[in-house]
Amino acid sequence: MKKIVDDERLIYKVCCLYYQDDMNQKEIGDYLGISRSSVLRMLQKGKEIGIVTIELNNPVSYNYGDLEKKLETMFGLRDVVIVEDSVLDSKNETSAHLFGQAAQYLYDTFNEGDEIGVTMGSTLNNVVATNKTFDKYRNLMFVPMIGGVSKSTIGRIDLQGNELARKFADKFGGTYTQFLSPAVFTDKTILSYFMQEKAVNYILDEFKKINVAVLALGTTDREDHTLLQAGYLTPREMQMLKDGGAVGDIAFQFYDRNGNTDAFRFFNDRVAAMPLSRIRAIPLRIGIASGRQKARSVIAAIRGGFINVLITNEDCARNMIESKV
């Protein structure tokens, strides 16, 4: 005699009551006059013979997977991470989501033995200031890619390269070195002589070892640029850069909409930092930026070959696509 749990017609009915009518196992048993254990076995049997199939839809992937892929294809990027902009969140909450996701991505990306270059500014400071905690027993080396000796702070927070390298090591594990130099010099000749000093030029050897770069992308479209707040750049100089076509900067080195830097050598050549031309040679170059006003800077950084991975928010991502079309 055929067992009740092998009756496909009954199995189908049990699965319908459970998955479509939202009845629990006891209710189904009482309704059909069978034991709860029989109901459970028929639900399992329904999966085994294909009456029931389960499909999971990740809402984040559903909303942003196609957008991430579109940006990767459109701009030739190795990877794109887009963080949700929720209308229910404040601007601060949205930023917190971005920085938290960026921190998690970096932790998952860093490998034992990596030499990781970091720039400076509020974006990277916010990444390491997230509440996320990670395993710190890792063999990582963090290298400031720009000079970090200055008396200046922004809102009583030290955003210099040396301090951020220390914070990265504290956040993700490993150790760090220092770049014992001001970020900007008054004259490129003074900078050239300064970098010949043995007490400083060790950093050039560290630059050669960097295989991952974490880059904050600045924009000339904001009035609160870190360079202005820290006193490295006067409003007049910033206007000269903008008039010359500057749309963004990495490590205080400016570039135009096509990623070209030649027009800004009057300033870039005075910056004690790893040159943008050498940053291009780093295998993994992760840019972090958010907001519609950053879209031009991000696109230009990609055109210049300065980044090949992007972590951003939905607003910036959609504006990038609109600007490119």
- CATH overall fold name of the largest domain: Rossmann fold
User: What number is the mean pLDDT?
Assistant: 87
- Quote the distance from N terminus to C terminus: 69 Å
Helix content: 40-55%
Instruction: Please tell me what the overall shape is.
Output: elongated
The fraction of residues assigned to DSSP E strands is 5-15%
Tally of separate domains: 2
What does this structure look like?
The chain has 325 residues and is an alpha/beta fold. It is built from 15 helices and ten strands. The strands form two sheets. It has a seven-stranded parallel sheet with strand order 1-10-9-5-2-3-4, sandwiched between helices. Helix 1 packs across helix 3 and helix 4 (59-75) runs parallel beside helix 15. The radius of gyration is 27 Å and the shape is elongated. The N and C termini lie far apart (69 Å). 37% of the residues are buried. The model has no long low-confidence stretch (mean pLDDT 87).
Which helices and strands occur, and which strands form pairs?
Blueprint: H1 8-20, H2 25-32, H3 36-48, H4 59-75, E1 79-83, H5 91-109, E2 115-118, H6 122-128, E3 141-144, H7 161-172, E4 175-176, H8 188-194, H9 198-209, E5 212-216, E6 218-219, H10 226-229, H11 235-243, E7 248-250, E8 253-255, H12 265-268, H13 276-279, E9 284-288, H14 295-303, E10 309-313, H15 314-324
Parallel strand pairs: 1-10, 2-3, 2-5, 3-4, 5-9, 9-10
Antiparallel strand pairs: 6-7, 7-8
Helix pairs in contact: 1-3, 2-3, 4-15, 5-6, 14-15
